[in-house]
């Protein structure tokens, strides 16, 4: 693929991601798995668009709409994640210790799902928003995209990830750790997209170490994500009324977080 072919390849990839989001938002038997898949694909598409900053494309409107789409699903996804994390914690202790917490978190998740679907039955409003996003993206001048644009975008992402890591190492603040995780995840997704943009090395950035770096970033993102999931459960347990074993539960969460600590 020649450098001039990067734009058409990026256009195809963007449309493929839009189609995948639409498929995930169709009514599925497992709505929580579908929401997870949709959010993951939204992040992949936004990572691709971030690579194209400062190119001839104007993707600000589409990216903002994708961000709203993802944020609108975050409460539902987070509610399911804390249930899954609670069940994992329960498996490591006598079941009755976590039984009440798991029951309450499951009821909370189901209530959030019911409210979400009542406000947007079948995710129809989100599907309509996605159609507008896809139309906007397909109208962009993809043929003007250059390999240098992608290289600059990746270099910017690497700088932002390194800066986020330094800030998190200094502060140990939960929000800084979460920002670092988001930067790591985006950079990993961008590296994973490069072979689809330039299978014949039209974007010669990372060479043969590219896949290895992406795998390392994937592992780091998973570790940081596990910490974030534990923090969400801890925050909920801390304020949940009427828990007789609150201290023991929080101690278990804290021990698990220490085991996962990276910095």
Textual characterization of the structure:
The chain has helices spanning 6-25, 31-51, 60-91, 95-119, 124-138, 147-171, 174-197, 210-239, 246-260. Helix 3 packs antiparallel against helix 4, helix 3 (60-91) packs across helix 8 (210-239) and helix 7 packs antiparallel against helix 8 (210-239). 79% of the residues lie in helices and 0% in strands. It is an all-alpha fold.
Number of strands: 0
* Separate helix tally: 9
Strand content: under 5%
Helical/strand content category? mainly alpha
List the helices and strands in order: HHHHHHHHH
Averaged pLDDT: 89
**Distance separating the two termini:** 42 Å
Which segments are poorly predicted (pLDDT under 50) over 5 or more consecutive residues? none
Summarize the amount of helix as a percent range. over 70%
Shape: globular
Q: What profile does the largest beta sheet have?
A: none
Radius of gyration: 20 Å
List key phrases describing it.
mainly alpha; 0% strand; 9 helices; 263 residues
Give a short synopsis of this structure.
The chain has helices at residues 6-25, 31-51, 60-91, 95-119, 124-138, 147-171, 174-197, 210-239, 246-260.
Topology:
Elements: H1 6-25, H2 31-51, H3 60-91, H4 95-119, H5 124-138, H6 147-171, H7 174-197, H8 210-239, H9 246-260
């Amino acid at each position: 693929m020649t450098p001039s072919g990067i734009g058409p390849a990026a256009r195809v990839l963007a449309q493929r991601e839009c189609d995948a989001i639409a498929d995930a938002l169709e009514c599925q038997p497992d709505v929580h798995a579908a929401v997870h898949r949709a959010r993951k694909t939204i992040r992949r598409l936004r990572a691709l668009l971030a690579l194209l900053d400062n190119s001839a494309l104007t993707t600000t409107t589409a990216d903002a709409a994708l961000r709203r789409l993802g944020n609108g699903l975050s409460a539902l996804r987070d509610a399911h994640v804390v249930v899954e994390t609670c069940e994992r914690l329960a498996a490591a202790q006598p079941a009755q210790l976590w039984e009440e917490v798991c029951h309450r978190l499951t009821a909370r998740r189901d209530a959030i799902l019911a409210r979400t679907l009542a406000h947007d039955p079948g995710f129809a409003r989100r599907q309509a928003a996605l159609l507008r996003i896809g139309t906007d993206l397909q109208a962009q001048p993809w043929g003007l995209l250059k390999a240098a644009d992608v290289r600059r975008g990746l270099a910017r992402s690497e700088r932002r990830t390194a800066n986020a890591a330094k800030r998190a190492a200094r502060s140990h603040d939960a929000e800084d750790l979460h920002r670092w995780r988001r930067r790591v995840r985006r950079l990993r997704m961008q590296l994973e997209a490069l072979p689809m943009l330039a299978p014949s090395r039209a974007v010669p950035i990372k060479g043969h170490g590219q896949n290895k770096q992406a795998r390392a970033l994937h592992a780091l993102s998973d570790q940081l994500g596990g910490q974030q999931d534990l923090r969400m459960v801890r925050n909920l347990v801390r304020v949940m009324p009427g828990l007789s074993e609150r201290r023991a539960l929080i101690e278990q969460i804290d021990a698990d977080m220490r085991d996962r600590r990276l910095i």
